[in-house]
Amino acid sequence: MIVFHPQKGFKPIIPIFGLLTLFLIPTGIILWSSKAAVMIWILVGVSAYGLISIAYLIAQKTTKYWIIDTELHYKSTFLKGTIDIQTIRKIEVNASNWLNGKPASSNTKGIILFFGRYDDAFVTPEHNQIFVNELLKINPAIEVVYIK
User: Fold this and answer.
1) Residues in a beta bridge with 123
2) Where are the domains of the chain?
3) How far apart, in whole angstroms, are the C-alpha atoms of residue 23 and residue 59?
């Protein structure tokens, strides 16, 4: 069994904090117009950024990918599943995926696995090339595309 851990760091959470800030601006305007106490401002800000940070850290700690025989298994917080490596037809390396809710702890510099007829999964192993090499050992027919 070969285990791959996800990419580490807080770089992936920066866009999420940016969006959260955009949502908090109207909240701040409402609080300011209602003459809310400074303590409420602090509570709202700390709660919002704190909850997002905790959720991200939980996702970081629970995400992993592992290969057993010819199957790729993944687990990320509440998502888990298996992909038969023999059905993987194409891999895009260093891809970004902002819309996919697949088992990844990041949304940039990952790998999109195209398998079956119409299925895909976005994964973010710590070392993309090692991950790809292990998949190619099992299924050398996989088309690998490197995105710049």
Assistant:
1) 111
2) 1-148
3) 22
Per-residue pLDDT of the chain (148 residues; tens, 9 = 90+): 889 988 777 777 777 788 888 888 888 788 778 877 777 878 888 898 888 888 888 888 888 999 999 999 999 888 899 999 999 999 999 887 665 555 555 656 889 999 998 999 888 898 999 999 999 999 999 999 998 8
Of 147, 86, 71, the residue nearest 112 (C-alpha): 147
69 vs 67: CA distance, rounded Å: 6
Strand order in the sheet with 119-123: 119-123, 110-115, 88-95, 143-146
Q: Is 37 exposed, middle or buried (0-12, 13-18, 19+ CB in 10 A)?
A: exposed
Question: Which tokens go with 107?
Answer: 């949304």
Spatial distance between the Cα atoms of 73 and 55, rounded to a whole number of angstroms? 22
pTM: 0.75
